[in-house]
Amino acid sequence: MSYTIQLFSIETKEKEQAAGDNSFFDLEENLVPLTEDQITRLKERLLRYKYELVREDEAGLHFNHPDEDFGSALLTGKGLYFRANLSENSIFEVGMTASEFTDTGEFAKYDPQNEGWEEF
């Protein structure tokens, strides 16, 4: 088991809130694609946070962190998916990292285990 925290474009957040549909995330086509520039900047930021690119496949770019409290990440064309271990420390660190990635205003943090969208 793990704890997931997701980062989507602000447009995906707006679209999901307007839809008012509990199954919104069940259909990948509902997610607004990230731009190539956004993907590049997210990848660079993950690397600055010491995440290591371990592989690339049809799902996206897979990252691990040498400190297991920071979990792992999957960067796709539609979002950034962090996976934390089930320890309080890991959930905290991954949650804080995901929140920091929203500082440009173009991304929104979604925590399906905890009330959904993070509000500031």
**Which strand order does the major sheet show?**
2-3-4-5-1-6-7
Order of helices and strands: EHHEEEEHEE
Which sheet architecture does the biggest sheet show? 7 strands, antiparallel
Task: Kindly estimate the percentage of residues that lie in beta strands according to DSSP.
Answer: 25-35%
Distance between the termini: 29 Å
Class derived from helix and strand content: alpha+beta
The radius of gyration is 14 Å
Task: Summarize the amount of helix as a percent range.
Answer: 25-40%
Q: How many helical stretches?
A: 3
Uncertain segments are none
Q: How many extended strands?
A: 7
How confident overall, as mean pLDDT?
94
The general outline is globular
Keyphrases for this structure?
120 residues; alpha+beta; seven-stranded antiparallel β-sheet; 7 strands; globular
Can you walk me through this structure?
By secondary structure, the protein is of the alpha+beta class. 30% of the residues lie in helices and 28% in strands. It has helices spanning 10-19, 36-48, 88-100, and strands spanning 3-9, 52-57, 60-64, 72-75, 80-84, 107-111, 116-117. Strands 2-3-4-5-1-6-7 form a seven-stranded antiparallel sheet. A hairpin with a 7-residue loop joins strand 3 and strand 4. It is globular.
